[in-house]
Amino acid sequence: MSADDATVAFLAEAGHLKNLPRAGWLLAGIRQPESVAEHSYRVGIIAYVIATLEGANADRAATLGLFHDVPEARTGDVPSVGKQHVTLQDPNDVAAVQTAGLPPGLAARIRGLVAEFEAKETIEAVCAKDADKLECLLQARAYQAAGNTLVQPWIDTMLAAVKTETGRRLAEAAASQPVDAWWHKIVASYGRPGTD
Amino acid sequence: MSADDATVAFLAEAGHLKNLPRAGWLLAGIRQPESVAEHSYRVGIIAYVIATLEGANADRAATLGLFHDVPEARTGDVPSVGKQHVTLQDPNDVAAVQTAGLPPGLAARIRGLVAEFEAKETIEAVCAKDADKLECLLQARAYQAAGNTLVQPWIDTMLAAVKTETGRRLAEAAASQPVDAWWHKIVASYGRPGTD
Amino acid sequence: MSADDATVAFLAEAGHLKNLPRAGWLLAGIRQPESVAEHSYRVGIIAYVIATLEGANADRAATLGLFHDVPEARTGDVPSVGKQHVTLQDPNDVAAVQTAGLPPGLAARIRGLVAEFEAKETIEAVCAKDADKLECLLQARAYQAAGNTLVQPWIDTMLAAVKTETGRRLAEAAASQPVDAWWHKIVASYGRPGTD
Amino acid sequence: MSADDATVAFLAEAGHLKNLPRAGWLLAGIRQPESVAEHSYRVGIIAYVIATLEGANADRAATLGLFHDVPEARTGDVPSVGKQHVTLQDPNDVAAVQTAGLPPGLAARIRGLVAEFEAKETIEAVCAKDADKLECLLQARAYQAAGNTLVQPWIDTMLAAVKTETGRRLAEAAASQPVDAWWHKIVASYGRPGTD
Amino acid sequence: MSADDATVAFLAEAGHLKNLPRAGWLLAGIRQPESVAEHSYRVGIIAYVIATLEGANADRAATLGLFHDVPEARTGDVPSVGKQHVTLQDPNDVAAVQTAGLPPGLAARIRGLVAEFEAKETIEAVCAKDADKLECLLQARAYQAAGNTLVQPWIDTMLAAVKTETGRRLAEAAASQPVDAWWHKIVASYGRPGTD
Amino acid sequence: MSADDATVAFLAEAGHLKNLPRAGWLLAGIRQPESVAEHSYRVGIIAYVIATLEGANADRAATLGLFHDVPEARTGDVPSVGKQHVTLQDPNDVAAVQTAGLPPGLAARIRGLVAEFEAKETIEAVCAKDADKLECLLQARAYQAAGNTLVQPWIDTMLAAVKTETGRRLAEAAASQPVDAWWHKIVASYGRPGTD
C-alpha cells in the first residue's frame, strides 16, 4: 500500500466514528443517539472556546479534542457497564497501530496528539479533557429536553469532573441554561417559532 | 445574558449541526444521511493531514475545517438545487451575529476562523477547503459502497476541485481505493470478517 | 426532454419533500422528525375539513394545502433562526422554474395553486393557510406527548395565527385534547391497549 | 365528545398515517421506508397532474388520492403476503366508523371520498387509482437508485396496472427516466452537484 | 424447491420479523419502535426465567416464546384499533401455510410450537404467554423513561393480564422498578455514568 | 434488592441487546443495522431448525442460541477490527456477574446456558453455534439485496465456519437463494407484489 493509499485508508478509518453510536446514550435508552464523530466535532469546538478563555493555544486544544476518540475506530466505545469486563489496550498503542502505514512524520504527529491528550499535562490537553466532559453535559441536557429521564447522572458527573476555572463556570451555566436559549430569543423576535 | 451564558448558548448552537442532515445526500435519496457535524469532524481531521503533508500549520488548518460550517446552524445547508432561488448572507456576517454576545476576544477569534476559511488566502485555509472537498468525496465513495447509484457526480466534482498537490494525490487515491481497505486486511488476519 | 419526461421529472421533484425534514422540529431537538411531505399530506386533509365546515370548496382547499410546500423541493425548509440571514425567492417565481418544462396548461394550473395559496385572498386559500397552522399545532402536541419539552411555543403561535372561525375552534380543541383521544376509547373497549 | 373534539380526533387519526410504514417496502428489506402519509401526499399530487392532462376535475382527483388510505389508520397496511390470511372490512365501512362522531355533513363528505375512490367509476377516481400505482412505481425507482435490488416486480406490476392514457404514458416514462433527472441538469449548471 | 431451499426460505421469512415494527408503539407515537423480532427475543428470555421459577420446562417455554409471533411474518402486527375491522386467520392455519414446504417432521414440530402456545394449556405455554405480557410491560416502562407519556395503559393492562404467581410478582416489581436499576449501581461504583 | 427486583433487573439488562447495533455491520457502512437482540432471535429460530434436522434436543438448542449474546449487554459487541486491542473477560465470568443477584437456581441455569454454548461440546451447542453463523450469512445476503457491496466476506467466512451436516447444506442453499424467494411466489399468485 502506497503512502497515499495508507493515508486515505486512515481517513476512511477516522470516518468510522460517524457510524459508532455513543455507548452511554444507548444505556440511557436512546436508540439512535449521536455518533462518536458528532461528539468529537463539538469537543473540538468547546476545547477551542475553553482554551481561548484560559489563554492557551486554542488551535492546539481544538485539534486535541477532535482527534481524542480516533482510537475508538478500532476498539469501539466501551460502555461504563463494561469496564470491569473489558481491558482496552493503551490508546497510544492503538494509535501506533492505526498510523503504522502513514508517512513517518504524519504518523508521529498524530500519535503526538493522542499522547498529549492522554497525558493531561499540557494546558491544551486539560482544556480538551474539560471539553470532553462539557460536551457530554450539554448533550445530556439536550436529551433531557427531548424527554429522556435517565441522563441526570451524566450531568452531575460531568459537572464534578471539569478541572479548569473556565470549564467549571461554563459547566455550571450549561447545567441550568434551557437548551433552547440560543434560538428562543431569535425566534420570538419573529412572533413565531415555527417555519413557513 | 451573562458572558458565560452567552458562551454556553453558542456551544448549544454549534451543537445544532448534529441535527442538520447534509442536504446534498438527501437529493441523492439517502434518507438519513450524515449530519453537518459528522462532516465537519472529518473535515478537521483531513485538514490536519493535508496541512501536515503540505508543511503548513496543521492545528490551524484542523480548526478552520472544524468551524467552517458553524454559520449553517443559522442558515441551514442550502442544497445545490436551491442556489438560484436562495440568497445567503455572507458567512462572515452570519458569524458576527452568532458570536455577538460572546466575550469580545473570543468572538473576534471565532470570526477570524470563519473569515480566514472564506478568504482562501492562507495555506491553512486552502488545506481546509481541500479537506472539505476530499471529505465529501470519501463520503460519496462510502455511500456508493453501501449501494447508492447517484453519487458519482459528487466524486467527479470533488476530484476536480481540490487545489493542493497533496489534496490531488489523496483525492485520486480515494477515488479508486475500496472503502473497506482499512479493515479488510485486519479482518482477514483473523480468518473472518464478522463479530463473535 | 419530452413533455412526458418533464412531467415525470416534476413528480420526482415533488417526491423530494419526502426526504426533507421539517426544519423547526430539528431546532426542537427532534433528530428524525416528520418530512415536509408528511406535513403536506395532513395540511391537505385539514384544509378539506375546515373548508367543508366553512362552506368553501373543500376539494380546492385540500389541493392548495397539498401543493403549498412544493417550492421547498428547491429551496429547502428554511428554519426560523435563518430568516434574518436567508432571502428566498418569491414562491411564485420558484414554482415558475419548477414547472417550466411541463405542458403549458398543466404548468399554469400548478402555478395557479401556488399563487392562490400565497395571495391568501380566496376563502379556500385562507382555509389552507389555517390548515398549515393547525397541522403544525397538532404535530407539536404529538411531539409533546412523545416527551419533547420544547414545542409549546409552536402551539401558542399557531393558536394565535389561525384566521377562520372553524380554525380557531379546532385549534382550541387541539390545544387541550389528549393526543391519544382518538384511539383511547376504541382500545379500552377491548380491555387492553396493546397488540397481540 | 363535542363535534369539535371529534373533528380534532379525526385529524389526529389521519395523522397516524405518518407513523405507518408502507408494508410492501418492508418486504423488500427497506427497514425505514416511507410512511403511508408520504405516499398519500404524492398520490394526491400525481392525481392532480393526471386529471389535468385527462381533462378531469383535478382538485377532486387530488382530494381522492389524498384521502384514499385514511382507512389504513385503523387496519394498518396489510402486506401482499398477508392477503390470503387477513380479511379486511370494506373500506367504506371502516370510514363509516372513523367518521362516526363528526358533524354529519362533514362525515358524509369524507365517506363520499372513500366511496368514490373505491367504486372506480368517475374519471377522477380512475385518475386517483392510476396515481396510486404511478406513485408506487416512482418510489420503487427511487429505492432502486438507492441500491435496492428487489423492487423491480413493483415497477412491472404498476406499469401493467395503470388505466388512463396519460397514466400509461407517464408510467412508461417513469420506468426509464433516471431518478436524478430533475436535479441533474440544474446541478450541472453550477459545475458541481454537492453543497457548500 | 428442495427441502433445503424451503427451509432456508422459512428462515428468511422468520427474519422478516426484524423489519416489522410493533404496531402498538406506533399508536403511542413512537416513530421507530422495536421490531417484533426484538420483542420475541425477550419473550423467549422471560419465558425461560418464569418457567424456571415455576418449575416448568424452561427450554420449552423459551422456545414457545421465541416462535409465538412467527405467523405475523405473513399477517403483520394488527394494532388494537384494527381489531374490529380485521379478521385474522387462526395462527395455526397461518403456520400450516408457512411450513408447508418444510421436511414433514420439522413442519410438524414448528406447527406444534404455535399450537401449544395458542392453546394455553401446558404450563410452558402459560409461562410463555405471561412472558409476552411482561415483555410488553418492561418495554412500556423503557419508553416511559425515554419520555413517552402515552404508554401507561399498556403497563396497567399487562399487569392485570399475567396469570402465574411468578409472573404477577415480577410484573409488580417491573411496574415500580426504575428502568436504570440494572446499570445504576454498576456505574455509580466507577464514580461516573458516562463513557470515556 | 429483593430476588424479584434482581430478576426484573436481569430482564431489563437482557433487553439492552435491543439497543446494541451489531458491530460488524457498522464496519460495512450500514448506519442503522439490526440489533444484537434481532440477531439472537433468529439464532434461536435457526438453532431449533438445525437441531431438529440433526436429531438433537431442539428446545435446548433454541434456548442456547437465544441466550448466547447476553454477556454483550455488559461488554458491547466488539468488532473484529478491535480484537487485537481489546481483551474481553471470559463470557462465563461475565454471566456470573450478570446473574449474581438472581435466585440461586435460576442463576445456575442461566450460567449453564452460557457455559454449554461456549464449550461447544454438546450437539445442541454445536447446532446453536452453527445457527449463529448461518444467521449472519442470511443477514449478509439480505443486506446485499438491499444494495450493500461490502458483505461478501461475511458470507464466505460463515459458509466455511458451519460444522454440522445440516448447517452446511442450509448455508450453501442460503448463499445462493434469492432473499425474496419466500415471498416472491406468494405475491406473484396475486398478480402484483405491492400493497393496496
From TrEMBL, chains A, B, C, D, E, F:
It catalyses: a 2'-deoxyribonucleoside 5'-phosphate + H2O = a 2'-deoxyribonucleoside + phosphate. PANTHER family: 5'-DEOXYNUCLEOTIDASE HDDC2. Residues 32-146 form the HD/PDEase domain. This is 5'-deoxynucleotidase. Keywords: Hydrolase, Metal-binding. One of its GO terms (molecular function) is metal ion binding. It comes from the Bacteria. It comes from Catenuloplanes indicus. Its cofactor is Co(2+); Mn(2+). Its EC number is 3.1.3.89. InterPro entries: HD/PDEase_dom, HD_domain, YfbR/HDDC2. One of its GO terms (cellular component) is cytoplasm. It is an enzyme of class 3 (hydrolase). Homodimer. Pfam families: HD_3. The keyword Metal-binding applies.
